[in-house]
Amino acid sequence: MRVKVISRSTDDFTRERSQDLQKVFRNYDPALRTQEKAVEYTRALNAAKLEKIFAKPFIGAMDGHIDAISCMAKNPNYLKAIFSGSMDGDIRLWDIAARKTVCQFPGHQGAVRGLATSTDGDLLVSCGVDCTVRMWKVPMLKMVDTNDAIGDASQPSAIYTWKHAFWGVDHQWDGNLFATVGAQVDVWDQNRSEPVSSFEWGKDTVLSVRFNPGEPDVLITSASDRSITLYDLRMSSPARKLIMKTRCNSICWNPREPMNFTAANEDTNCYSFDARKLDEARVVHKGHVSAVMDIDYSPTGREFVTGSYDRTIRIFQYNGDHSREIYHTKRMQRVFCVKYTYDGTYLVSGSDDTNLRLWKSKASEQLGVLLPRERRKQEYLDAVKERYKHLPEVKRIVRHRHLPKPIYKAANLRRTIIEAENRKEERRRAHRAPGSMPEQPFRKRRIIKEIE
Amino acid sequence: MPGAKSATDQKAMELGEKEAMDEMEKKVQKYSRGQAANLGALRDKKLKGQLAAREKLYGHSAKAAAQAEKWFMPTERGYLEPEGLEKTYRFQQDSIVQEVDILSSRKAFDMILPLLGPYTIGYTKNGRYMLVGGRKGHLAMMDMLNMELIKEFQVRETVRDVAFLHNEQLFAVAQKKYAYIYDRDGKEIHCIKEHGKSLKLQFLEKHFLLASINSFGQLHYQDISTGEMVANIRTGLGRTDVMRVNPYNAVIGLGHAGGKVTMWKPTCVKPLVTMLCHHGPVTAIAFDRSGHLMATAGVDRKIKLWDLRKYEVINSYAARAESLDFSQKGLLACSNGSQLEIFRDTGGQDYKIYMKHRMVKGYQVGTVLFRPYEDILGIGHSMGLSSILVPGSGEPNFDTFVENPIETSKQRREKEVQSLLSKLQPETIMLNPNMIATVRPSRKKEKKTKKEIEDEVEDVVEAAKNTEMKKKTKGRSKASKRAKKREEEVLKAKRQLMEQYKESDGRPEKKQRVSDEVELPKALQRFAKSRQ
């Protein structure tokens, strides 16, 4: 007879000294874990609820300006710095971590309309309604003690006066050029006092400009004649133009897919385009209930943030037709500018109420360093949430956002209006000869034409 | 010759490798939780890619788990093997106890308690603690790891059943009039009057539900974390004390006097399943850990094994049993009077006798229970309690985070918190626990599309055209006659098919209204609808 029974000596399974870690034994046999799916579902549900409980995206407000904030610029060379310009001509440099003004620039006579930094982060270009472009030397931030009081920067390193008021500025990536827009598009060299070249296509004011992050000579502008125009600096005239039914307030390239850009439109939607194929939008991002004022992509290119006249900030997936997140506070007024920080974890918004506000990009994310164990746990919970996201209870909790009453009502009203329009069109089509009124997808409906 | 030798060596090595590969594949199978989804039928390329990546990940994790088995599972399974002409069922308990190591030999014992019996027993899920209930009011809790008595007290009234709650800190006792909950120190925490005179208690540890069947045949479910009475179901099948939880899906099985076995969940007032298992009362019922196997015993001197996927008898044995229990590794223990028999699956769910044990004559065995994570069978009988060694019955390797037989108080507290956080709702109890998050298949019969019907008609017509015709005489095989006949054939085949489709539509054809017969232009259709 050969016989053996399970025999565990306690010493082998317990720690020797109280300072030791407890011994851990694993048996991954599925038979030991019954009702796995129910357990996972419960965990997903709890994770969704906890996410809601911990969703506190607002970190703090940065006050100091005495008029509405009109524009902002990130510093590519320094993660926690951000420049802001206000309607009274004031330009400030902020330390996001300390939420304080580090440096105040003398600024402009009228409103500052555009701010841009060079890729090396040494130069700040500002322009405003006083028809001047001013260049500022950015103080070495590493030397500045964050606890220090507000420091005054010296005079601008250059002031160039030009023929018209400016509406925006953007600096070339890895180059010396920058472009200003206003009555026309002007391309400047850092070392020249006059534009290197100027473009004009139509008579209306150009509102915003952005250089392509991949192709340094390509830039895109949006104008008040409802157009989006692509320029190539290697050519003498603008390349292509797209006219929509309403104007775009701001445009941003996707930094990871630099052929794609997204335009923040006056008709409450954002439109993502492929620059090579302008006759239809790739995605229409809906959600805002008032004009979208500014847009900025996260450095990963997977998400972008929009600020709107309806006093909310929304975060969209690059391919999502509805917003992932809506941020609002009671005190935040109409948002004029938003920026995603270069590490992709924070958002900064500047609004009519003279404050800059700092937000987390993931509302329930824990700030600070996570222990490996905490990180793994978080990853697990995210995975189960992803797995059971289609179940009605989980979906309901994850989707739900509380909205201020005016916005909620405005959204309902918009929905009613759109439904009525659709209904009307359907009936109109029914009364027409079949095929005489082809149905157009929404991606094309707001586009009037493309001009080469 | 050295060359030939090396060739044979190589062959042997290859064989060995192949065996190892096969063994590995078997292990991977265990962890892969069923077949991979069939992605060939998918048309959505994006989804297909995503699912393929997911399946690949599952494969990797199964393989990793199989490979880690060697390192994570230090303990080997117990065994009892005969040599020569020996038979395992002839081995006496004494000889087994003599053969095994001292530590294990201490685990087999007989405790003679003649005054307050007969006794019933219960184990915690991790197998460390044993609860003993004597019919005449004797309650005791023991730590089986150190063989210590933790608490012993008398309630001085009938004790029908005992059951641990989620850990050894609390246990429930079915007493003369009501069920009570006591803590580890023997303090009475609750008296649960709502359950009535309960005969049998079971605890669903994932749901924190205490289930009981009372003398009126009412099944109660109570959530012990909130105190809420989740369900009170009248079975309507009379008094019974045969109740077991299926560990696979937390469905409760009841055996009734009429020979029926019913299965219950708290959110349904009707039984999920009713099976006529025996002629005459059911005396015992047990579920295997895998959830696919049920054993029932009746007074009709039959022990039956059921496949719970098909609800069919796999095997039937002529034997009596007062109590049944499946071990973690699938051994089946049956008690009959003072005799015990343990069966083992010899492959293909063919259960053969594995061990026999005979108590002292006159002892009536009431309860048999395998101790989890040990090769031990606990026996509660009329004169006390015993435990015997059954090699190969228990799961040798535990998972610290699932059930830990050697847990510290800190680990126990941590586990309590975790299990409360992931407490399952009563709705998650269902016959197939993997149903959650799957898509319910549509009930509707798939209708054939117009094109499919047309294709089929075409095929039939083609077949009819190509039928060979008999050569006939007297001018009946003229070309015109043949053509006419062929046409008739085609029409006949077509008509048959069309009638078939009409029938399969199911509904009798509606009489059309006058207004419907006139085809309105599209613009006016909405007015026509609103008038109806």
UniProtKB/TrEMBL annotation, chain A:
Residues 361-447 form the Sof1-like protein domain. Keywords: Nucleus, Repeat, WD repeat. Its main location: nucleus. The keyword Nucleus applies. Residues 422-444 are annotated as: Disordered. WD repeats lie at residues 62-104, 105-146, 285-317, 328-369. One of its GO terms (cellular component) is small-subunit processome. The keyword Lipid biosynthesis does not apply. It is found in: Nucleus, Nucleolus. SMART domains: WD40. This is DDB1- and CUL4-associated factor 13. It comes from Zizania palustris.
Automatic annotation (TrEMBL), chain B:
Residues 471-484 have a biased composition (Basic residues). GO terms for biological process: maturation of SSU-rRNA from tricistronic rRNA transcript (SSU-rRNA, 5.8S rRNA, LSU-rRNA). Residues 485-520 have a biased composition (Basic and acidic residues). WD repeats lie at residues 275-316. SMART domains: BING4CT (SM01033), WD40 (SM00320). InterPro entries: BING4_C_dom, WD40_repeat_CS, WD40_rpt, WDR46/Utp7. Residues 462-532 are annotated as: Disordered. It comes from the Eukaryota. Its main location: nucleus. Residues 353-433 form the BING4 C-terminal domain. GO terms for cellular component: 90S preribosome; small-subunit processome. It is found in: Nucleus, Nucleolus. This is BING4 C-terminal domain-containing protein. It comes from Zizania palustris (Northern wild rice).
